[in-house]
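Issue 218. Parser rejects a valid record. Input:
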Amino acid sequence: MNLNFLATAAAVAGSMAAGSASAMWVVPLTDTTSSLALDWSWSDPADGLAGTTYTGAHWEATLKAVFGAGVWTLDATYRHLDGPHGEIAESSSHSHTAWFVPGVTGGMPAIGVEDHLLPVVHPDAHSYYLFGNGPLDPGKGAFATLHVTHVPEPAAWMLMAGGLAAAAAWRRRMQGRARHGPGDPR
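Output the parser choked on:
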């Protein structure tokens, strides 16, 4: 069984068992300079509308969930508080919207890649994924997941491509020697 799921379920169950009022919970799964993974859950549509903000060591993220016309709409924002290159916090947040119909697998996740925002723009980019789902009865709440990861910089891709080309050339040379013998100058 997925340990992340167990951690999320335990956090939600613990809050509910304590008799706390309905709320939106956020469980951080990953918060590093290059990756963010959060699971949100809520037990009442009003709690999703109120939303909640996560502020961690390297990222800040907010989720609001609105139920209307039989569809949940998820509005998420996130921004770096620092980054893998020592950059300072982004001055504004990345914003994405996803939706789903309760009790139906699917919906419209938000998936894509985008550049960093000011004040430090560099060739590195984020890939993001925002997804949600929930039971047929929206009064029983729902959940959402946000994953953000850095996409390698062009320099890293070029270094990898150069290494692969060198390995291919070396292998070709070794195959030629094996075919023609060690004394052959090819």
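Fixed in the parser; the record now loads. The longest helix spans residues 154-180.
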